[in-house]
Amino acid sequence: MRRRAIAVLVLLLCAGAAAADGGRLRLRQDAGAFEISVFTAPEPLAAGTADVSVLVQDRRTGEVLLDATVDLVASGPAGASPVAARAGTGTNRLLKSAVLRLDRPGPWNLEVRVDHAGDAARVACALPVTPPARPLDAAWPFLAFPPVAVALFALRGAIRRRTE
Fold first, then answer.
1. Domains of the chain and any CATH numbers
2. What is the rounded distance in angstroms from the CA atom of residue 61 to the CA atom of residue 68?
3. pLDDT value at position 12?
4. Overall average pLDDT of the 146-160 stretch
5. What is the rounded CA–CA span in Å between residue 91 and residue 70?
6. Which residue, of 11, 20, 59, 74, has the greatest Cβ tally within 10 A?
7. Backbone angles phi, psi at 20, to 5 degrees
8. Mean pLDDT on 121-136
C-alpha cells in the first residue's frame, strides 16, 4: 500500500511536465482548399525560442497533406525584428514545425503561408509573448523536495513514537 501511495505521489508531481505533441492550439481555420491548425510550445510563450507546428489538411477530405510547403513569418512589438522560417518535418511527421526566436515580450502576430499542388492560403493568429522566466522558476520543485521529504520523515517518526 505504501509503495502504491508513493508511486501515485511521484506521478502527480511529474504530471505538470507532460506535453502534447504540438503544444497549445492557437488557431484552427479553413483557408482556401486547406484546414490549417497552428500549435505553439512552450505554454505560456516566453521571450526566447518558440516551437511552432502546423497541421495542414485537405478541407474536403480531412487528409493530412504531408508534402505541403509551410512558411512562417512572425512580426512583433515595436523594435522587434520580424522572424521568418520554413517549417520542416519534425518528430511528429503529421506536423510541419519550426523554431522561431521571439526576442521581445509583447503581442506578436504569426502569419502562416501554405502552398500545395498549386493551391495557396494564408492565415494569421496572435501570439502573446511574456517576459522570459527566471531560472529559479523552473527549479523550485527540485529545491522544495528535500525539505518536504525531511519533514515527512520527521512526521513519520513522531507518529511512530506516539503509537509505541
1. 21-156 (2.60.40.2480)
2. 15
3. 46
4. 89
5. 16
6. 74
7. -80, 170
8. 89
**Residue 95 three-state SS:** coil
CB-facing half-sphere around the CA of 26: CA atoms within 13 A:
28
d(CA 159, CA 164): 9
Q: b/e string for 12-32 if b means 16 or more Cβ within 10 A? A: eeeeeeeeeebbeebbeeebe
51-69 average pLDDT score: 95
Query: Structure pTM?
Result: 0.70
**Structural contact between residues 90 and 66, judged by C-beta atoms closer than 8 angstroms:** no
Highest mean pLDDT among 5-14, 54-63, 74-83, 127-136: 54-63
Chain position carrying cell 494564408 = 122
Cell of 37: 491548425
Gap between the Cα atoms of 121 and 57, Å rounded: 12
User: 107 and 24 in contact (C-beta within 8 Å)?
Assistant: no
